Amino acid sequence: MKANIKQIQNINKRYNVFTSIRSNPTPPDNSPFAPLGNLTYAIKDNFTTRDEPTSCSSKMLSSYVSPFDSTVSSLLNQSGSSCIGKTNMDEFAMGNSTISGFFGPTLNPLYPQERDLIESYEEITFATKDSISENDGEIISSDIMNDYTNTSDLSLHSYIKPKLYNDAFDRISNEQRIVGGSSGGSAAAVALDLVDFSIGSDTGGSVRLPACYTNIYGFKPTYGRISRWGLLAYAQSLDTVGIMSKDLDTVWKVFMSLDLSDSKDPSCLSDSTREKIAIERIHSKKNVGKKIKIGIPVEFQIEEMDESIKKYWKSLLNKLKESKLIEVYPVSVPSIKYSLPTYYTLCTAEASSNLSRYDGIRYGYRVLESECNVDIEPEFVTTRNTGFGEEVRRRIILGNYALSSYGFDSHFMKATAVRGMLIDEFNDVFRDRHCLIETKQLKSTNGVDMIIVPTTTTSQPPLVKDFKNTDPVTSYMNDICTIPMSLAGLPTMSIPYCEGAMGFQLVGQHGQDYKVLEFARLVDGVLSK
Amino acid sequence: MTKPQLKIGLEIHTQLQTISKLFSNSLNPTSNLSIIPNSTTSFFDNSLPGTQPKLNNQCILNAIKLAISLNCKISSISSFDRKHYFYGDQPLGYQITQHFNPIAKNGFIKLLKKYNPKLSNDLIINIQQLQLEQDTGRSIYHSINSNISNIDFNRSNIPLIEMVTLPNFSNIEEIRIFLQYYIKLIQDLNICTGDLETGALRVDVNINVIGHKRVEIKNLPTISSILNAIKFEEKRQINELNSGYSLLSNSIETRGWNGKSTYHLRNKESNIDYRYVPDMELPKIKLDLNNLIPKINSILPVSINDKIDNLMNNYKISLRDSKILINNEKLLKFYLNSWSLINDIKIKEKLINWLVHELLGSLTKSEIEFNENLISPKSFTNLIIEIENGNITKNNGKLILLHLINNKIDQSKPILELAKEFGMIANNSINDINNNDSLDNIINNILIKNDKIVKEIKENGKIKKINFLIGQCMRQTNGNVQPKIFEDRIKVLLNI
């Protein structure tokens, strides 16, 4: 059993991990049949839940309550684990620092922090009145009632909302470093031992980078492996559900509970695809005991990479070689060089499209009539200008450029083509079959099993006080090591290495999630010797 | 001076009749406007955060049915794209449509002079493409002065097929014939109600006279408004050309229709950039055409032209009457049933005349719509057989037909027995009663015998009772006098 609610509130005061904390979390299921019984978790605030707002750390949705639960949240509750609260993030998952959101910065537990960021807590209670569909018995609408004197047909919900100090940014210690993002709250919750595991979303590294910065495991499964129903879309062709924990077996168990097809998510892998992967996995068991072939892409010899990272990378590979676990081969995935601009073209384009639904008409924040001047701009424009933060607005503008009639062919289509090339090149490097491509090309029968690369180029996260003044493009550089796997949809585990904010990514072929998990266990065995 | 040539193309949105909507499980009310606003919407229809589209395969089936019927090339792989624009009733901020790879392309409809005598030539209308897309919600404006509008999302995410034709039309008669054909087609395919008034079918017109730029006309809720708008716009453009219109000075314009004239809505150059992009989560539609098309072909109804050909060739029916039959499913069925009950080929050929002209004619006078419960095909054909065999006169036959419709019980009686009852067995000797003197004698006798009824007619104004008197007169004369003659004389004699 992890920390109790009082302790969680106390610790949260310093690091600002949660956007909301449950006042009465369901106790974890003690049944021996509950696969995740006795485990507590926190979930990023871009997954819909019915007990508290789903804010995406944005003013736009700061008090928006969803009428339905995300598939991930339903599955975790069914598996017997208990949700403690929802975690802070970069607004709409756009960022890699978790300092930009509407609810203030989340700090990194690995670095000293003297003063509290949270001044107080407020308990908020609301009631919902649910209508159930006659078709499928699912809840189809849920009116939020602030008057709940007559509770007969209402369900009550309550949560604890932190109130930030006005001078929160001035209270951050000079030695504080960014926790990473965008799932920074989820990483910090695990690092602070407030929960057994946490759920984040990983679009370009948003689980792996904060996992690395907080010295925990961060797993980004194959694209489409876990249902995204209820995960607020940032860039759907890249968005994945990620799992973070200090314990590898917990990551594994949680992944197994979530690794299911879902008819509500059109990009979720079908049962037949999953079956094929499972059969191939059984066949590959005959390779057990043989050395695992590891590829090292030459394109990861990045100029900006710290010497110390290169040194630790070598030491990791040497340890694994010495224990006869792996053999190392240099490989080449040339399109990795273009992955950063490719990624930022695609994700901003998708984001600008996905975020165009937030107009204040149906739900969420809407500007007051008195704050509008409709002679100058329509009301929804004012709503969007004041409801979105700076980085979100920047990415919407960038994305709109990529999709505009003058930018589409030169930017969006080119980026799409580079992404296709990148996937082809990874297919040539790996021994295994891409799970969505029927036949394996002959060329690569001798491919590698896994790739091992660093999660970040720097041995320490940037200092918060420096990061605030970094220009956006420089800050995008932090994603350089995690983006290629996102573009190709590959299963990737960031494992902590040594002490401090250092991690390495174990990367498998598309669909080979269990191979990655098994390999992570083997590596863990070697490193813990 | 000859009129400059007119070029017209159509852009038609057809709302598909499916059980559920295009990308969600909520019920598709099509354009049933009586449904409570926002009562048939799902989370996705309202674009709630975290929802995803789920393609309804029934929409694809309907689209393929239409594509085959329009002779289109169906794509084995098609996909969905997003078209971005902000509007209050567009909940996603974009419409999911098919911009880059539509489900079908390059079709045509042949409108043959053979079937459409009003056409001056055979006409081929080329179809550019068919695309599946979502409908939007509906904005409801309460009054011009109010700055508040409500939005009904029931229509949001209803499946539409957008069809674009090339500018192959050159006059309104062609447009009228095309629209009638198209509406009949989608109704036969059972994919759309075909109602323009409710918005289940929406037609935009692209029109220009040679020398004038293309103008788009929107908001045309009826066929007559489409035709009238075209007439008006043709004149307007000709006038503009005559008053020194310059091609360079104008960009492509969108105009509306207010019932009397077209009016300026906006210019294309002020249009927004739709930022089309392939949808990133909807899978491509992959179709095994070799397998699918024969299967769908086998469930398609017979084409309209084939139906007409069949009626004209095998039943010797005129084009006009064939069209009446194929436009009325019940009438066609009644006709075919009756046809099979008659053996004599000469009498068979008289059937259509009795059905379309006599029966429908008298029904129209009484403002009754044809339905299969009015008279049984057996009773109807027995009557016709007796008439054509000369056992009952035509005039009497018509009366008996009306009697049978009004007195269903008598339909089970043998026709000749009934005719005997009315004294309507044809008498081949010529009764010389066509002079007014002897007619008046007969009528006067009847009036005296029925003085109570005469009183009711004259004093209580029960004019309809006159029919009874006519019937009595008919009986007296074995039905060989036109009832109209009796009616007129009775009115004269009774001074009404």
Automatic annotation (TrEMBL), chain A:
Cellular component (GO) terms are: glutamyl-tRNA(Gln) amidotransferase complex; mitochondrion
The record lists the catalysed reaction(s) as: L-glutamyl-tRNA(Gln) + L-glutamine + ATP + H2O = L-glutaminyl-tRNA(Gln) + L-glutamate + ADP + phosphate + H(+)
Q: Where in the cell is it found?
A: Mitochondrion
Where is each Amidase domain found?
A: 32-112, 174-517
Main localization, broad class: mitochondrion
The record ties this protein, via SUPFAM superfamilies, to: Amidase signature (AS) enzymes
Q: Which GO terms describe its biological process?
A: glutaminyl-tRNAGln biosynthesis via transamidation; mitochondrial translation
Q: Which residues form the active site?
A: 44, 182, 206
- List its EC numbers: 6.3.5.7
Please list the GO terms describing molecular function.
ATP binding; glutaminyl-tRNA synthase (glutamine-hydrolyzing) activity
Q: Which UniProt keywords apply?
A: ATP-binding, Ligase, Mitochondrion, Nucleotide-binding, Protein biosynthesis
Does the keyword section mention Ligase? yes
Q: How does it assemble?
A: Subunit of the heterotrimeric GatFAB amidotransferase (AdT) complex, composed of A, B and F subunits.
What family does the Swiss-Prot or TrEMBL record give for this protein?
Answer: Belongs to the amidase family. GatA subfamily.
What functional role does this protein have?
Allows the formation of correctly charged Gln-tRNA(Gln) through the transamidation of misacylated Glu-tRNA(Gln) in the mitochondria. The reaction takes place in the presence of glutamine and ATP through an activated gamma-phospho-Glu-tRNA(Gln).
Q: Could you tell me what this protein is called?
A: Glutamyl-tRNA(Gln) amidotransferase subunit A, mitochondrial
Organism of this sequence: Pichia californica
Q: Which gene encodes it?
A: HER2
UniProtKB/TrEMBL annotation, chain B:
Tell me the compartments it is located in: Mitochondrion
Name the GO terms of the biological process aspect.
glutaminyl-tRNAGln biosynthesis via transamidation; mitochondrial translation
- EC number(s) reported in the record: 6.3.5.-
Describe its function: Allows the formation of correctly charged Gln-tRNA(Gln) through the transamidation of misacylated Glu-tRNA(Gln) in the mitochondria. The reaction takes place in the presence of glutamine and ATP through an activated gamma-phospho-Glu-tRNA(Gln).
Q: Which organism is it from?
A: Pichia californica
Q: Which family does it belong to?
A: Belongs to the GatB/GatE family. GatB subfamily.
Source organism superkingdom: Eukaryota
Which GO CC annotations does the UniProt entry carry?
A: glutamyl-tRNA(Gln) amidotransferase complex; mitochondrion
List the protein's name: Glutamyl-tRNA(Gln) amidotransferase subunit B, mitochondrial
Q: Which transformation does this protein catalyse, written as a reaction?
A: L-glutamyl-tRNA(Gln) + L-glutamine + ATP + H2O = L-glutaminyl-tRNA(Gln) + L-glutamate + ADP + phosphate + H(+)
**Which keywords label this protein?**
ATP-binding, Ligase, Mitochondrion, Nucleotide-binding, Protein biosynthesis
**Quaternary structure note:** Subunit of the heterotrimeric GatFAB amidotransferase (AdT) complex, composed of A, B and F subunits.
**What gene is this protein a product of?**
PET112
Task: Specify the Asn/Gln amidotransferase domain's residue ranges.
Answer: 333-494
